[in-house]
Amino acid sequence: MNPQDFKNQPKKHLIGQIENLTKIKLDNPLIKELIKVSYDVKLEYIYDIDAIEVDGVIECELTAFDANDGHEFLYSAEIEWNDEYSFDQKANDQTNLILHNNFDLQAYVIEQINLNIPVNLSEKHAIIYKVGSNWEFLSENDHMKNEEISEDLDPRWEKLNNFKSDK
């Protein structure tokens, strides 16, 4: 869609699916393939700043490899999409620039998926820590237990207080 399309029809409500998902490659190496991508977005052209405001939801299903143990699993996400895109190169730094005067909805939907899929994608949402020279994998429960333990007072402080009071 080019700027003239938006000037002719400033408000659009688009609902659809992206086809030919096998040709699309996502940036995250843990993602094996996209299964389904659908969107429900409202586009509104803002004349004053020559920009498009996008508000909607992207739903995607994909097959991924677990960052912890490498097994395949099905991942689905519902991504809230609220952003601004501008045809004007002099737009503010908070607005995304539309290149070649062409708003390619499919490309921007895929971009949003790339931006919102976790880098360390895991089926169990485990937290990965690097400890020393080895990696340590912690489930969320283990992480919470470690946090609780670390919040306990170190017994050496009590010994220090006793040492000070002895003098």
Automatic annotation (TrEMBL):
**Highest taxon of source:** Bacteria
Q: What is this protein called?
A: DUF177 domain-containing protein
Give the organism the record lists: Williamsoniiplasma luminosum
